[in-house]
Each structure stands twice: as C-alpha cells, then as structure tokens.
Input
Amino acid sequence: MKDTKAISMKGNIMIPGDKSISHRAIIFGAIAEGDTKITNFLEGADCISTMECFRDLGISIDHQNGEVLVHGKGLYGLSTPDHPLDVGNSGTTLRLLSGILAAQDFTTTITGDESIVKRPMKRIMDPLTMMGADMISIHHNDCAPLLIKGKRMFGIHYLSHVASAQVKSAILLAGLYANEPTSITEPSLSRNHTEIMLKHFGAHVTSNGVTATIHPGQKLIGCEINVPGDISSAAYFIAAGLLVPNSELLIQNVGVNPTRDGLIHVCKQMGGNVTLVNKRTSGGEPIADILVKSSSLNGTTIEGDIIPTLIDEIPVIALMACMAKGTTIIKDAAELKVKESNRIDTMVENLSALGADITATEDGMMIKGPTPLHGATIDSKMDHRIAMTFAVANLICHGNITIKGKDCVNISYPSFYEELERLIQSV
Ligand code: S3P
Output
C-alpha cells in the first residue's frame, strides 16, 4: 500500500470503560441491597440511557466524572415509572431491563429511538413468556415498544437458537426472581460478563460450557466495580496501529475476557504484530495493555464459535481485510443484520464506495485484498461502529472520507475523534 497521507500512529491511549460492563454495573447495582460504587464508568449515551431508566424506576444514582454511586433498593425495590422507559439506541438496556421488568408487580412500557424499534425482540419475548411474563409488542411486529406486565416467574431450561449475551442476560435476570433454577444453553458461548458480575454481587450462578444457570434465592449485595477498558473501542486503535505504516501504539487497560477477545486472535492469524502485556484481573475480568505495531496482513477465514467473541469488531475487521493479501471470508455472522444497522449491507455499501472488492453473503461477507481505498462520502446509518471504522479508513485511503452522521460515536466513545487525532504523527 502506498503511504498516501504520510502519517504514522504513535503513543499511548487509555481506553474508556467497557459498555457491556458499565450497563451491567448500573443494572445489578439497582437491584442489589446497599450502594454500588462504579469507577471508569463509560460516559457514552447508551450507558446514560440505562442510568436514566433506573432513575425513572425510583433508583437514586449519583454520577460525576466517570464515578457512579448506585443506591440499590434490592430485588423488589423498583417503583412504577410515570412514563414509558426510553432506552435510546441501546439494545442492551432494552433486553436486560425487560428480564427484570417481567418479574415486577407493576406494568411498564419500554421503547427507544428509530433504530431500536426495528430490532428483534421476539428472542427475549419467547423465553420470558415461557417463564410467565406477560409481554406485548405494541405494534404487533415483535419489536419495541413493549408493554410488560410483571408476573411471578417460573424457572425454565431454555435452548436458545442464537448466541446472544443480551438474551442470556434477560433470562438470567428474570431467573433471579423465579421459583426454581433457570438455565440457558446457547449454540456458542456469548460474552459472560453477566455471569461474572452477578457472582461478584453474591448471586449463585454456575456455568458449564455453553450453559449458564441461575439459582434463585440469593440477594444481590452492593459492591465496587472498576470497569475495564472496552476491547470493542480499542479495536479501532488496534486496526489503525496495524494498518498505518511505521506505527506503534500502546493501548492501555483493555478488558481481554476470552468471550470478547476474538479480534486479538484474528489479528494474529492475519499476521498482525499484537502483544498483550501487563496482564491482570479486576472483579473477575481479565485486563491487559495491548502493544500494536504496523504489519503486513494476510486474508483469513473467520467462522463458527469465534464469531460471538468479535461480533462488534467485524466492521473494522472487514476494513483490515481490504488491506490484507488474499481473500477473507466471514461466515456464521447473520447476527450482523440486526445490530444498530444491518452491518453486512452497511459495510458492503460503504467499503465498495471506497473501491474495495467486497461481496455480501448470506451470513457474512467476502473481501479480496489488498485494494487501495479512495475517499468518498459514506453513510454511518447512525451506527457508532460504522462511523469509527471509516474514521480509521480515512487514515489509509487516497483523498478524504466524509462520514454522514459522524457524531453517533457518542453512543460508545464520545472522545473518539480527539483521541484518534492525538495519536497521528506527520512523517
Ligand atoms: C452486548 C451483547 C452483544 C453486542 C452488544 C452488547 C451485551 O449483542 O453486540 O453490542 O452487552 O450483552 P448480542 O447479545 O445481541 O449478540
């Protein structure tokens, strides 16, 4: 690849808190007894939506500069909100909260923005209804807004057809209120932050391969959670460090839970110079610093059980594949179609506009590289992970990329553009 912009990426970067873990810390803190102190909380719009929903449910939450104090009221301490709960763009808020609302002794309506009301909710409505919940999709389209009439929960064993931590967590949370243990078996293991954190709060959760079980009867006790940096946010800096010539980045404080670290394996498989240093653990979650150096990449095949461990990183992996020698095939990733945008279509459309050789497949995409990319105007479809991927593409293409809706990065990484800019060195 010709060094079109004559830049390199150098320096250290501290990654903001993990989105999945920040949501869970608020949610579990709210239904725990006593206070939960959260440090390095992600100040992104999605996690603020979770916080606001719990305030509407009567939970008092103090929040200042990445530090949050949740004054939990126990499993039965939530009160009826006086208006519909608004989750904004956040699927995690909607699905996890539904698991709790299904078991309350009041009725709630839960909804959100234009994108969230198009995302599938049948995947949580089916198991929660089996557990006894009374849930109605108000427009009868299996999407939000949902009307949830809380009911007594019954323990079930659920065989899920989708590897989704949001579905698994909704079931486990409802299971906290059930008369008997509840378990869920997934086709592949999805992120296990719920299992790890619920244990930290004192719940009795067991895991056996792709099956997780919650044993009810234990109360949650408020605790301290120090949120590790989000590997899904680190992904853009890992890609930039690999793709921009003469780069070296130390990406600090990144959560490297094995159910989230598929990107690291794929980078290595593609020939990327990525090293984990300073490995440690916090609250049961593994953390490391990641050292990345520019590398020549090769195409690869990504399929099967690794997919849930890198599902949110596939857009930036697709960009890396455009710069890699040979063909990259991404399979078993149909879930991409039901994310904040249809990420198969959005990536194929936008990377094609830059001159990439990319084809959509039934459950993923196929990319041939290396292909020099050129500037264009692309539409983020208000999907934060698309906007950040194309900000990285802009570092390596001829000309400039204009990103429509670029401010949607506020969902998960409000200071993203400033941080990216800070690491650019002219050479
Ligand atoms: C998340 C789980 C994943 C992921 C989303 C966050 C979570 O979704 O894509 O960004 O916090 O549980 P699915 O569980 O639907 O795969």
Q: What stands out?
A: The radius of gyration is 21 Å. The first strand starts at residue 7 and ends at 14.
